[in-house]
Each structure stands twice: as structure tokens, then as C-alpha cells.
Design goal:
By secondary structure, this protein is mostly helical. It is 60% helix and 6% strand. The protein has a 5-stranded mixed beta sheet with strand order 4-3-5-7-6, with helices on one face. It has a two-stranded antiparallel sheet with strand order 1-2.
Length: 640
């Protein structure tokens, strides 16, 4: 097949992705961060329309500290959120907000695949390698899955890859330059930074590799020092323009376009607002106590073998690649640098990464480009026909696995794990699987299709304890047969509960004694459970009725509290247990017990009591705080 035919095939595949992926996104559920970003987009749009100024309020308090709160999300530029809100409100407002945002995210996912292929083509000049990179990107399950409903990491990866493409294109055109390319390049920086401040690293890449390329051209006498200096000044101007342009899409940054994006970057470099337990290598560890290799290990176990092997192959073939044309060497060096520099920076700065490596999703396209180049180079290096056929067979063997996973596990492709750890089977009970809530909608669909109503009002009451209830409530509100309820676990106020394996971060026994009692259905990925539907067995039992004496209960709770602040923790526990004799449904009593156990250093019992409190009242914030603290203290104790 000629290069011209491969270019046509590239275009056809790209158009297919742009058409098919938004339709597939309609199957996706809502992820943990989406409500916050949806609201952020509406506030940003209102700011530009002049109806609400909250999007421009500083995310820092009077002491200059960034903290979780009403305006905390202003630390993000929110360009994708703004774009989504604008398109929805002005062009297709009759379409559901989340469905519309998922469709737009899927379009950005398709663009990410296309930009990845174009980047490979621009680096090598080959449409064959570009096509290979496009196909590899399409069947990288985690990329595909996040393209269905991740409002933050996926758009950033798209803008990042687009900027990389523009940098390579600019370098290829040197010493000539175009005004149009310069404008697009500056805007690409602005868009990326206005989604995540980490996009500032692109300007660093641009400056460094432009300087390397120009120095090389001077050495080869392709350009004189003076015009090269002028070009470097242009490069600096483009980078600075891209930095300042960020404020156009970021109301808070407009207050100080020079300083505020840098302030945002310092926050994310030292981000530690969410400290909790996570499962890694079969151990529960706190997010502020992760091993140095956390990110590279996560990347290794969540990309297909065809990519991880391809990356290693590229490194092995570097002696061959450096004999290529000078531009290709520089462009490959840029792409390779864009993979390892962020990882090295995270390790060196002990940057805060939690639950998985979705925060570095933006380096996966660069890995794909390097893998495509390496596989293509290997095919060309081998002259022996039998050996070449063996390599092709090996490639197809590695490639078919993620292809099958992508087709058979829609819309949960984002939960993919590599065969290097035995896939989902090896990840179960060893690594975080679905903390982001991808599987909640799948569980709800089963309830809608397979369960019988148990209430006189003909509605199934469904509860969800883990995370933002929007993951369930949004879709439940669209079904007249379903009602989302906030109800204690040990009550008769619900019919079905959706329980995720990720809840084990708050109750380890849940995962290690899976499946939970009352389970009637499991959402599985490659045969491994990630969440379950629980039927309330209490509805079939006669409940014990307790008469509650409010005044006695309040007096004992106060007594328990007084004992606690006096340091008489055993007496505080005893008083709280007397409350439970009067009212077994007292979440506050269990929280008092938890706090006293914690003060005594008995973190196991503190965790148990917190879980009891939260099973009765999932909204008990004191119990949530005590649980997080106990889990952190227990992990530190074990590490010592």
C-alpha cells in the first residue's frame, strides 16, 4: 500500500472515530468529578455573560492558602468546562447536560487519537507509521474509556498532544516560519494551560528543543547566528503569548495574568488536599506515603503490552534511530523527553498522585508514537522473511488483546489492566479498580431491567454510599420506576444498594470478603467484579422496634463527650454504648466511640466504629474525618 493510500485510510479511520465515539459515549455513566466540573462550566459561562462573578473569585483564603471550598475549583482554568456549557446552552440545550458533555469528551477523544497519528506522521514523514499510531491509540483501552466521560484528564491530553504536534510542525519548518503556525502554536499552549496548569511544561519543551534545533542548524551552517537569534526571540514571544493568552479563558487568571497561572502550578505541585487510603501492590497505603515508583508502575500495568514492549524496543533501537535524518532525531528526542521528564519530575518533587495514574494520561500518546516508530523500525530492519513473519505474528499477538478488551468491555474500557499482571484477575485485591465510578450506571441498568418493585408506590429505592451521588441520582431521576434515596445501610428505607469494590478503602474487609451479603448481581470487567447490586434482606425480616428516650439519649451523648475531652476515654466509650442500648441507630454514639478509640491509639476499633456510624448515616462528616485520620495513622504505624 502506497503512502497516498495510507493517508486516505488515515482520513477514513479518523472520520469513523469522530462519528462513532460520540454515539458510544451515550452508554457511559457519570464519573466522580463530573458534577463539580459541570457546575464550574456554568459559573464560567455566567461570568462571561456578566450574570455571576463567582468564577473570578480567588481560590486562596486571606492567608494565601488554597483549600477545598466553594471557589477552590477556580484554581483550574476550566476551558473545556466552559466550551461544554456554551455549546449545550446555546446549541443543543434540549439534550441532557451530561450526555452532551460525554459526546463532546468523546469528540476530544477521537481528536486525541487523530493528533497522536498525525504526531507520528509529522515526526517520521511516514503515513504508514501515522496510521499505525492512530490504530494503536484507538485500541488503547484506558484512553478509549476515559474518552467516554473524563472531563479533565482526557481534554488536557488532547490539547497536550495537539501542542506537541504544533511544536514538531514548527521545528520541521525552521528556519522558515509562518504567522499562522505561530498563532496556532500560541493558542495551543493557552488551551492546554487553561485546562490544567501543568500545560506550562509545553512552553519549556518548545524553548528547549527550538534552541537545540537552531544550534544544530548553526553548526551545520544552515543558518547564521543573527537570524537564528531572531528566530529564538520569536520562539520566546510565541511561548510568552501562549502563557498570557491563558487568561482569556480563565477569569481568575485575568486578575493577574503574569502571576496567577504560576500560583496555580505551585498548588498542584504540592497538592495534598485529599489524603486517604488506596490499594497498591496488595497493600493499603495513604496517598501521601506512596512509593517513588507509583506512577511508572501504574503506567506499566495499565497500557497494553504492545505499547510497553514498543517503548522498550524504541530505547533499544536508539543507536539505529540517531543515524536518521537530523530532524527526525530531534523530534524523536522531544517525544521521548515528553514521556520521561514528567515522570522524573513527579518522582523528584514527590508530587501528589492518587488512586491511579490518570493524572499523567497525557504522556500515553507520546508512548504510542514511540511504540509505532519502534515496531515499524523493527519490521524494516529484518530482512529474513521467516523472521519478519514471526515479528508480525508477535505484534498481532500483543495487539489483539487490547482490541478484544475494547470491544468486549464497553463502556468500562477505562478499567483495563495489562496481561503483565494477569489483567483484571491480577488487579483484583491488589490495585484500585473503579474508584472513579465508571460501573455505577451499569449496576443501575441491571436494577432497571431485572428487579421487581417492592414498594406500594411502584418505585425501586436505590442507595449509593460511595462518593458523589450524581453518578446514580442523575439517571435515577430520568426513570419513573427508580428513586434515589439517602438511607443508612442497616435500615429498611431502601430496596437496592450499589456497592463498589473501591469502598474497601474505608472498610478493607469488604474487598477481602467479597461478595458482600445480599449480592444479587455483579458488574464485571473481563470476569472480575468491580461493583455489586445488593438487595435489602431486612425487608423480609420483622424489624425490632426500639423506643427511644430522646432526653436520656442526649444526656448520655453529652456525658460521653465530656468524658472524652477530659481524657477519660474508657468512660466515654461506656457512656456511648449506653446510648446504643437506647437507640441502636445513633450514628453520633458510634462516632464518639470511634474518637475515643482513636485517642487511645486503637485504630482498628476506631475504623470499625466509624464504619458503623457511616452505615447508619453516610453524611456524618465527623465520622468521615475520623475514619480518614484512623486509616492514615494505621498505615503510618504499619510502615514503621
Amino acid at each position: 500500500m502506497t503512502d497516498k493510500h495510507l493517508k486516505i485510510l488515515f482520513i477514513v479511520w479518523s472520520v469513523a472515530c469522530l462519528l462513532i465515539m460520540p454515539l458510544l459515549s451515550l452508554d457511559a455513566g457519570i464519573t466522580e468529578d463530573e458534577r463539580e466540573h459541570m457546575e464550574h462550566g456554568q459559573r464560567l459561562l455566567a461570568w462571561y455573560l456578566g450574570t455571576d462573578k463567582s468564577a473570578g473569585v480567588s481560590p486562596f483564603d486571606v492567608n494565601g492558602q488554597w483549600k477545598i471550598g466553594p471557589n477552590a475549583i477556580n484554581i483550574y482554568g476550566g476551558f473545556f468546562d466552559l466550551l461544554s456549557a456554551t455549546l449545550h446552552d446555546f446549541f443543543y440545550h434540549d439534550f441532557g447536560q451530561y450526555e452532551a458533555k460525554h459526546a463532546l469528551t468523546a469528540i476530544f477523544g477521537a481528536l486525541l487519537f487523530i493528533f497522536t497519528g498525525l504526531l507520528a506522521q509529522r515526526v517520521t514523514g511516514s503515513w504508514g507509521i501515522g496510521m499505525l499510531a492512530l490504530v494503536l491509540a484507538t485500541f488503547t483501552p484506558r484512553l478509549f474509556g476515559h474518552a467516554m466521560n473524563n472531563p479533565k484528564d482526557l481534554p488536557f491530553a488532547t490539547f497536550f498532544c495537539f501542542s506537541m504536534l504544533q511544536i514538531v510542525s514548527f521545528l520541521r519548518e525552521l528556519p522558515n516560519w509562518k504567522v499562522s503556525r505561530s498563532v496556532i502554536l500560541a493558542l495551543s499552549f493557552s488551551f492546554a494551560i487553561a485546562v490544567r496548569t501543568g500545560g506550562l511544561i509545553l512552553i519549556f519543551y518548545f524553548l528547549v528543543f527550538s534552541a537545540i534545533h537552531l544550534v544544530w542548524q548553526i553548526k551545520c551552517k544552515e543558518i547564521e547566528l543573527r537570524p537564528a537569534s531572531k528566530l529564538m526571540a520569536l520562539v520566546t514571544l510565541i511561548g510568552f503569548s501562549g502563557y498570557l493568552g491563558t487568561a482569556l479563558f480563565w477569569p481568575w487568571a485575568m486578575n493577574n495574568p503574569l502571576l496567577n497561572p504560576l500560583l496555580s502550578l505551585t498548588v498542584f505541585n504540592k497538592f495534598n488536599a485529599l489524603v486517604f487510603n488506596q490499594l497498591f501492590e496488595g497493600q493499603w497505603i495513604t496517598s501521601d506515603n506512596l512509593p517513588w515508583y507509583f506512577v511508572p508502575k501504574w503506567i506499566y500495568i495499565t497500557i497494553p503490552v504492545v505499547l510497553s514492549f514498543g517503548l522498550v524496543l524504541f530505547i533499544v533501537l536508539i543507536p539505529v534511530i540517531i543515524n536518521k535524518q537530523r530532524f527526525e532525531v530531534i523530534a524523536c528526542g522531544l517525544v521521548l523527553f515528553s514521556v520521561f521528564f514528567p515522570i522524573a519530575s513527579i518522582i523528584k518533587n514527590h508530587s501528589y498522585i492518587y488512586d491511579s495514574a490518570r493524572h499523567v494520561l497525557f504522556i500515553i500518546p507520546s508512548i504510542i508514537v514511540l511504540a509505532a516508530i519502534a515496531w515499524s523500525e523493527l519490521f524494516q530492519l529484518i530482512d529474513n522473511i521467516k523472521l519478519k513473519i514471526s515479528v508480525v505474528i508477535a505484534f498481532l499477538f500483543f495487539f489483539i488483546e487490547p482490541v478484544l478488551f475494547t470491544f468486549s468491555n464497553h463502556p468500562l474500557q477505562a478499567l483495563y489492566f495489562s496481561p503483565v499482571i494477569d489483567g483484571m484477575k491480577g488487579a483484583f485485591k491488589n490495585y484500585e479498580m473503579d474508584y472513579y465510578g465508571f460501573s455505577v450506571r451499569e449496576a443501575l441498568v441491571w436494577i432497571q431491567q431485572n428487579s421487581e418493585p417492592t414498594q406500594l408506590d411502584d418505585k425501586k429505592r436505590v442507595r449509593l454510599w460511595y462518593g458523589d451521588n450524581t453518578k446514580l441520582k442523575y439517571f435515577a431521576d430520568q426513570d419513573s420506576r427508580i428513586q434515589y434515596v439517602q438511607a443508612p445501610e442497616n435500615s429498611t428505607d431502601w430496596d437496592y444498594s450499589i456497592q463498589m469494590t473501591a469502598e474497601a478503602k474505608y472498610n478493607h474487609d469488604l474487598l477481602f470478603h467479597w461478595p458482600p451479603p445480599g449480592m444479587v448481581y455483579e458488574v464485571k470487567v473481563d470476569g472480575i467484579p468491580v461493583s455489586a447490586v445488593i438487595k435489602n434482606y431486612r425487608l423480609n425480616q420483622s424489624a425490632n422496634q426500639h423506643s427511644v428516650n430522646p432526653s436520656a439519649q442526649t444526656a448520655l451523648l453529652n456525658q460521653s463527650y465530656q468524658y472524652h475531652i477530659q481524657g477519660e476515654y474508657a468512660k466515654a466509650i461506656e457512656a456511648a454504648k449506653k446510648v446504643l442500648e437506647i437507640n441502636p441507630q445513633s450514628s453520633d454514639a458510634w462516632n464518639n466511640i470511634a474518637a475515643s478509640y482513636g485517642a487511645m491509639g486503637d485504630y482498628e476499633n476506631e475504623i470499625m466504629a466509624c464504619n458503623k456510624a457511616l452505615s447508619i448515616n453516610p453524611s456524618n462528616q465527623l465520622a468521615k474525618n475520623n475514619l480518614a485520620w484512623a486509616m492514615a495513622q494505621k498505615a503510618k504505624k504499619l510502615s514503621n
